[in-house]
Amino acid sequence: MKIFSLIERIKSDSRFCKKERITLIDDFETFKTFIKLQAYKKFPLQRIILVEKFKDKFEKEFANMEGVSKTKIDIVDEEKLRKVLKIDNPSICALINIKQDFFDLENFFSGGRFCVVLDSIQNPWNMGGIFRTNSAFSIFDVIVLNNSVFPFSPRVIRASKGFVFEQNIRMLNNVRDYLDEKCISLIFENKKDSLDIRDKKIGEKIMNSNVMLVFGNEEYGVVSKEIFKNYISVKIVTKIDSLNVFSAHSIACFYLTNLISSNDKPS
């Protein structure tokens, strides 16, 4: 089947995904999230491939649902799908068109206080985990900078458990020209002169601003500071020199959203 060649290309080449605006979901739980979020309205299903033993379960849960009912479905041998997806116990492969505009910042912010900026994030599992945590804290605006992994590659989708489809994502090389004076950037890095995330100065700043939470490359922690303005260097104080970027992101989201919540409560 020619479709298997396409699947192999999508799985192995994220540049192909980005250029052709196509990607795939390769596990059942992620597909359930995709449907629950009604993500098919922005990311139309192109084709669905099922293993025989999942056919009845799929038809029971999804066959008559909006976004699915008119999609072409193929039933294939489990071993064939295992070889092409290179995963154990495959169940489904859903091909999806990517229609999200990655480059238009007009009306980008969805109204939340925070926007997460990912600068040169290379590990798809880190990026997917960050998207999943974003959704947990109701953070939906994301800017992906420079040579980061493509946010809709199959590995990122799997790591996010489908919550990448809930994110409002833009891919840029420069954000400086889009930032107004009311927006501050918190750049997370472990340097001697960086402010502690618990510093009152940070709390005062974020209460009156839109805030970008900026996280740099996993290996070097480097952030392209020249493309920001009104930024504050921030560190998360721990007993170790550095944190995995996904862990640092989770701590920052927990602390800052709780800070906002506690200050928004009536006195």
Question: Can you walk through the features of this model?
Answer:
It is a single chain. With 267 residues, this protein is an alpha/beta fold. The protein has 2 domains: 96 residues, Ribosomal protein L30/S12 (60s Ribosomal Protein L30, Chain: A, 2-Layer Sandwich); 151 residues, Alpha/beta knot (3-Layer(aba) Sandwich). It is built from 9 helices and 11 strands. Helix 6 links the parallel strand 5 and strand 6. Helix 6 packs parallel to helix 9. The termini are far apart.
Write the layout of secondary structure elements.
Layout (H helix, E strand, L loop, with lengths): L1 H11 L1 H7 L1 E4 L2 H9 L8 E7 L3 H7 L11 E4 L1 H8 L6 E6 L16 E6 L4 H13 L4 E5 L8 H6 L8 E5 L10 E6 L6 E2 L3 H7 L3 E6 L15 E5 L9 H20 L3
Parallel strand pairs: 2-3, 5-6, 5-10, 6-7, 8-10, 8-11, 9-11
Antiparallel strand pairs: 1-4, 2-4
Largest sheet: 7 strands, parallel
Side by side, the strands of the main sheet go 7-6-5-10-8-11-9
Query: What is the CATH superfamily label of the largest domain?
Result: SPOUT methyltransferase, trefoil knot domain
- Helix content estimate: 25-40%
CATH topology of the largest domain: Alpha/beta knot
Question: Number of helix segments?
Answer: 9
